[in-house]
Amino acid sequence: MLRILILVLCLTSAAVGQGYHDNTGRGDVLAGGARMIPVDTPAGTYRVWTKRVGNNPKLKLLLLHGGPGSSSEYFEAMDSYLPGAEIEYYYYDQLGSYRSDKPDNDDLWRRDRFVEEVEQVRTALGLGPDNFCLLGHSWGGILAIEYALKYQANLKCLVISNMMSSIKGYNAYAERVLAKRFDPAALAKIKAYEAAEDFSNPEYLSLLEREHYERHVLRMPAATWPDPVQRAFAHTNSHIYVLMQGPSEFGLRGRLLDWERFNDLKRIDVPALVIMSQWDTMDPAHMQAMARELPQGVLLNLPDGSHMAMYDDQQRYMRGLISFMKSLED
Prior knowledge:
This protein has helices at 5-9, 111-125, 139-151, 167-178, 184-195, 202-217, 227-234, 238-245, 284-293, 309-312, 314-326, and strands spanning 34-41, 44-53, 60-64, 88-93, 132-137, 157-161, 272-277, 297-302. By secondary structure, the chain is α/β, with parallel strands linked by helices. 47% of the residues are buried.
């Protein structure tokens, strides 16, 4: 999942209640292929931002970003690869995220509500089973699995990128494996800050950056992270993130805590690519098992990648994604 380090430093950049406003009216097309799509919710109608790149009637990829509450900006890595492969794709900031409306209503930040939002976006974009592929990364992977379990009749294919199908398994892997890779003294300090719920302490954030982010989120010095990643973190709606994910690095405890779908994967009978990375925050063995459990599952293993493998194992990530999608074009 996209993490809280930069979020804590940038709380003011994504204040709840602000929206991305244009003056063109409800649901209009904006400049450069962007479009604000109205979505109906129990609390009213709001707008979400999308942008189309490319044109291919047979292959249309909708990108579900992580967080929850991040933005689709970090998918800009796709711009150097998918157009040349003639794959049409869509940026999409989920409700509450950067360029979409940000209603101040915590009842909206629930999995089932997000699933219905994706379905409304699909309908508005005119995507269907003859061309519609859905890629979910991190939290977007949870959302993609949930969508497929309810609406797989609308899908041509599914891509689950860097997300396990069990939060219980995710928490266990963090404690059993990742925490043991920390310097013991650093881990003790991190645990103490978390016990005190002092999540904004500068030393806590610095320790996480060194011991966790640069090893398992994006394997390069944080100061040199690519601009799209920096912007996505800076623009994250931290309120939604903490509400659903929880504030702690070790042990998710927000609204997603009880999410378990491994045993339901066998019900998703569309071609499905599972993208796993050896240095991820996610358990590689669990993701291998996911690919086996999916009736038409295919595994892409990225030996040099971490959670943001579209950057730190980029060539393999893009080559594998394109190969999978092009195999389904006809």
